[in-house]
Amino acid sequence: MSRDLVIAPPVPPCGGSTTDPEQRLGPQFRWTARRKALLLAAVDEGLLTKAFLEAIYGISEEELLSWKGRMAMGGLEALKLKRGSGSK
After folding, report:
1. pLDDT digits (tens, 9 = 90+) for 1-25
2. DSSP for 41-66?
3. Residue 57 and residue 20: Cα distance in Å, rounded?
4. Is residue 16 within 8 Å of residue 23, measured between CB atoms?
5. Which residues of the chain form beta strands (DSSP E)?
6. Where do the structural domains in the chain lie, given as residue ranges?
7. Alpha-carbon distance 88 to 74, whole Å?
8. Sequence-distant (≥ 6) Cβ neighbours of residue 48 within 8 angstroms
9. How many other C-beta atoms lie within 10 A of the C-beta of residue 54?
10. pTM for this structure?
């Protein structure tokens, strides 16, 4: 994994709140399967911590573990599935 890869903006665009992930990432921001996989790899490699992901991106440990389990079971295709659904 490239150490200079930017996953999402860590600071608010256009002066949004730094405490609200929805404003910080923008209303149209989506956690794609690729972004989820990159975050999982960054945590596994020690580049990011779970606490950082929760504080900056609003991703709970439960959600991260869910992504990790789905990635282990079905790779990127499994990460494309929305939680609780059987289809994209």
Report:
1. 445 555 554 444 444 445 555 555 6
2. HHHHTTSS-HHHIIIII---HHHHHH
3. 9
4. yes
5. none
6. 31-88
7. 14
8. 39, 42
9. 15
10. 0.64
